Every structure is written in structure tokens, then in C-alpha cells.
Amino acid sequence: MRGRVFVALLAVLSIGLGAATASAAGGTEPAPSEATPVNKDRAAIHDAAVAIESDARKRWPDSFAGTWLSEDLSSAEVFVAFSSNAEAHVAEIAKDFPRPDLLVAVDAKRSLSELEAELDQLDADRSAAAEGKSTLPGAEDGDYGLGIDIARNAPVVYVEKLTPEVSEGVQERYGDGVLVKEQPPAQPQACNSRSDCFYTLRGGLISSGSDLCSTGFVVRGANGARKILSAAHCGGGDIGSARKTGGDIGVPLVKYGSVTDQAQYGRVDVEVHSIDAPFDAMPWVYKGAFNKDWEIRQTEIWSNLISGETVCMASIWAGGPDTYPEPNCGKIKDKYFSPFAGTERYVKTSLCSMQGDSGGAVFGDDSEGTGHRALGIHAAGSFSNEDCGPTHWAAFTAINYDTNALGVTVDLAP
154-159 and 294-299: which strand pairing? Predict the structure, then answer.
């Protein structure tokens, strides 16, 4: 990678099937085509777009470079990048795509498999730095995040403070092909309180051990019994430790179950709790006081998540008087995010979050628009009792990795 220089070409050209082509090579996201009509139903296009990645990786594994949605809410364009033959490949995709006029072909310098290999090397270097075996000027302790900016076709090093020393150090080590971005550091991951809905558990309520966190999705174990997820990093996480809910003014903390299994490594940060009588649970996530809960009808796997996709989160801080409003929604920014050493494939978003939201349910609209899709469990963020500003980030672990690690399945509404 050393010395590799990228030039962003933002010209948009039309081709026969109504798709367009642009170039992304470490520069800004291709500009939307002025000729593309506004599609008011981004959710409908999303379902067709998520199939592109798995199909393209199988058909063109050496050149496919990623897919992402336009961040412009007035547009439903779908960008599809290849390191070679972008126009021809997107023309093939367009034959089976319901709105070929929304497809934009992007010429990229590197394939997604190349970007993933480079990310693996960055992660290995970070681990070595944390052990004192390697140094990156300005980030000698390995305390920085990693990810991939699909739209700019480059791995990313996320640092707390972007200084000339850090920029020069990354460029000296990796060349111009690795981006450096400034973001607030991950904050301690648990605290705070909120009352719940006795005695039916759901996502977005209090889950109290030695710290206060949030409940995630309702799941079923191997024997069919309902359980509920949260984050494994929450305090008092030993197997068998009690979990309680309640705790607001005039509402006592009451035990609803205990930790039966947990996993915290690589792609997962999740634990599962039993649900003891008189508590029960339903496949819902909390929407707000006096509002009908959101029903969970589908799940989504990590490989089908797309940068630019809208996601929402139910957790204990949402809707508080001094926090942020419900629904708490944002955009996926980087699904290859690694907030700290030992993590991979976290999904970075622009969601608001605070200490205590860990374990909360991250979800999106389902394909029929009648319920919602379980996407993952909130695991890390930068928010620390301050305004949820433009540099804030929040990250979740994908639900398919979480449930596979624990041998459970998400309970779905009929």
C-alpha cells in the first residue's frame, strides 16, 4: 500500500440500462445523478439492494468493492463499486434489479477482499502496538479504532485527536491508501436507570447487574423457552448472576432472571438472561410511554447491512427529559468497524447513545413495512452525558453473530 495515491473522479455517465457510473478511489462519495428520480420508498429498494453484495461477491470475488445507499434522504440511489469492469457488472445486476435507474456503477481502486485483507493487517499491527511490539507515532498504545469506508474505498484509522504526527505516522507506515479520521473515544459502557413495563419484558428496558444496561431482543433457547439479550460487558456478568429491572422513582428493582450464557470476543458482545415467573417476554422493542411497542418480525445478517441504511435503537436513555428523543435513529457508517483491539465487524452508526444504553436493541424496518428487523445489540459509543453532536458514534454487534455465539434464535412476532 505504501505510496499509493488515489484520485477521486466524480463524473457521472449514463449507460444503456439506466444505471450510472462514477469513480471512488479514496475521495468523496460520488455525487448523486441529477437525472435520478426521487424514490420515496427507500425501504423497498433496500430489500433488493441487500441481495447485491452476496451475489456480487460470489460472481466477481476479485473485483467487487462494496455497495452503499445514498445518504441523501430525497434519493434512493444504490452505489455498486468494482475494481474492474464496473459498468459491465452493474449492467448485469441491473437486469434483475427492480429500479435499474437507481443503480450507480463506481470504479474503485481496490476490491472488497483486498480492503478486508488490509484491515486484517491493520488489526494485527494494532494488537502488536498494544503489546509494545510496534508503534504508530501518536498512537503508540494501540488505542484506536479501525474500519473500512466503503464509499471512499479505503481502510480507516479512527483516532481521538487527529494531529499532524498521527497523519504523518499513518502515511509513513501505510501510504496514502489508509484514511485517518477523528472521533471521540469509546466511553465506559454502563450506568443510569429507567422504569420498565412490569411484567412483560421487551427490548429497551432496564437490565441491572452491578451496572445498569438495557435489554435487547427477546430470543428462544434450544428448549423453546423465552430469554432476553443484553451486552456481555455489563457489570456483574458471571454466569448465574442476577438481572433486575425497574429502579425509577417509586419503582423498586425486581429480579427478572439471571445470566445463563455470554460471549465477548471478536464480533460479539452479548449475553442472554433467563426470564423467571412472574415475568414473561414478547417479541417487541419499547417505543415510548403510552405507545404501542414495535414488533420484531424479521432478522438481518451482517453481510446484508449497507452503509447509509437507516437504523434505530431502543434503550434506556431514549426519550429521557435531558437526553435525546424517541425514536432514536441514525445511519450506518462503517460495518467493518473495530472500536478497540480484539473487536471486528462491529457496525458503526450515527445513533445517539449514552452509558447505560449498552445491550439495547438496534433495528430497522422489515421488508413489508408492517414490523421491524432485528439488526444487533448496542455495544460501544462515544457519548458521555453531552450533546449528541456530529462527531458522535455508536456501534452494535450484528444479531446473527450474537445469536450464533449463544445458540439462540430471535423470537419473532406472527
Answer: unpaired
Task: Give yes or no: residues 68 and 87 share one domain.
Answer: yes
Q: Kindly state whether residues 386 and 245 are assigned to the same domain.
A: yes
| Whether residue 252 is found in the same domain as residue 384 | yes
Does a structural domain hold residue 344?
yes
Q: How far is CA 116 from CA 2, 66, 308, in A?
A: 17, 11, 19
Residues 133 and 92 grouped into a single domain: no
Kindly report, residue by residue over 214-265, the tens digit of the pLDDT.
Answer: 999 999 998 899 999 999 998 766 788 999 988 665 567 889 999 999 999 9
Phi, psi of 86 (to 5 degrees): -60, -45
CB atoms within 10 A of CB 100: 18
Number of domains comprising the chain? 3
Residues 82 and 151 grouped into a single domain: no
CA distances from 238 to 25, 98, 242 (A): 46, 49, 9
Residue 41 has a pLDDT of 57
Q: What does the block give as the cell for 233?
A: 460487558
Give Cα 27 distance to the centre of its chain: 22
Same domain flag for 126 and 163? yes
Place of cell 462491529: 346
How far is Cα 366 from Cα 81, in angstroms, rounded to an integer? 26
DSSP string, 129-187: HHTTS---TT-TT---EEEEETTTTEEEEEESS--HHHHHHHHHHHGGGSEEEE-PPPP
Q: Last residue of a domain, which of 112, 130, 158?
A: 112
Task: Indicate whether 141 belongs to any domain.
Answer: yes
CATH number for the domain harbouring residue 94: 3.30.300
Average pLDDT per consecutive 10 residues, the chain (414 residues; last block may be shorter):
25 33 49 39 72 91 93 79 97 93 95 96 84 66 86 92 86 89 67 55 88 93 94 82 77 87 95 92 82 87 93 85 77 95 95 91 76 93 70 94 97 92
Q: Which residues on neighbouring strands pair with residue 363, listed in sequence order?
A: 312, 374
Report the alpha-carbon distance of residue 196 to residue 353 in Å, rounded. 18
Whether this prediction's pTM lies above 0.85 is answered by no
| Residue 81 to residue 57: CA distance in whole angstroms | 11
Is 221 part of any domain? yes
Domain holding 251, by residue range, is 200-410
Q: Say if 170 falls within a structural domain.
A: yes
What gap in Å lies between CA 112 and CA 382, rounded to an integer? 27
In this structure, are 98 and 132 located in the same domain? no
